[in-house]
Amino acid sequence: MVSSQDYPYLKVRLALRSYQTEVLAYIDTEFDGYLIMPVDLSQELGKPDYISIWELGDGSLIEGQDYVGSVRIIGLLDNIEARITVIGNEFIIGRALIDQYRLILDHGRRVDVEK
User: Is residue 5 within 8 Å of 109, Cβ to Cβ?
Assistant: First the structure.
């Protein structure tokens, strides 16, 4: 099990192409995808593998650049093959990733994750 005191964030390692980094990512249970990363990092990634359309909370649509890579929650062994979407300005973990684990949001103080 991994615990994060940085509620509601988890530290993740992402890898796509030659780009790798470890970041704190916000857990968003309303986001259906795997992982969002900020647009300002897209220049380092090159041409996207896919283009996708996402509906935002206000009902508007936005185009995202998608890259195939992998994501690992720091402290767990699993590397999850993931579609990483470049939109917005922060790192966000979605349901496609967290639904593969048992996730406990403990009273707004910490996040526990286990396989």
Answer: yes
Q: Kindly report the CATH number assigned to the domain that includes residue 54.
A: 2.40.70.10
Q: How far apart are CA 91 and CA 36, in angstroms?
A: 5
Domain of 40? 2-114
Q: Is the pTM of this model over 0.85?
A: yes
The number of folded domains in the chain is 1
CB 89 within 8 A of CB 13: no
Q: How many CA atoms lie within 13 A of 37 on its CB side?
A: 28
In this predicted model, what pLDDT tens digit does every residue of 57-99 receive, in sequence order?
Answer: 899 999 999 999 999 999 999 999 999 999 999 999 999 999 9
